[in-house]
Amino acid sequence: MYPANSAIRHPAFFNRYVEQVGPGKIIDLLDRSVNLLEQDLQTISKAEGTFSYAPDKWSINTLIRHCIDAEMIFAFRALSIARQDPHPIRSFEENQYAIASEKAYDLEKLVQEFVHVRRATALLFKGFNEDWLSRSGITVNGEQVSLLSIGYIIVGHWLHHKKILHTRYGVDL
Length: 173
What we know:
Strand order of the largest sheet: 1-2
Distance between the termini: 20 Å
Order of helices and strands: HHHHHEEH
CATH topology: Four Helix Bundle (Hemerythrin (Met), subunit A)
Number of domains: 1
CATH class: Mainly Alpha
Strand content: under 5%
Largest sheet: 2 strands, antiparallel
Structural class: mainly alpha
Oligomer: single chain
Helix content: 40-55%
Number of strands: 2
CATH architecture: Up-down Bundle
């Protein structure tokens, strides 16, 4: 289900995340997502973090690290839009980040970090005036992305990877 709101503006690439999220105020969705994420991560913390479903695919640990990195980047983008930073919003190469990050992960610490990052993200959005949600930034490719869309992307990004953890990694969430 796609959230119906005229303030939803983002490059088409992000549809796969935004479409994962049901309707609702983004503040409420982020608040609820903290508890849901915590439940999901408790299940994941029992998995073998070094497991990868195929050669040259990310381990569960690397996937969780990616989700943390991406959320921090999305939160920075949200802050940039909220503060009306005139600079273009740059992209990031997720595989380069994964390769450059430390490989000896402690899944329990990753789980703790991800929950803290999501709580911080929810608090960040609570600090925004509601009328700011329609503010937009421009990507380096010249495409608009709204503050509201960033919120939906954040929630949906985890939901996307949660499905991958279930279907490809066999984690029963």
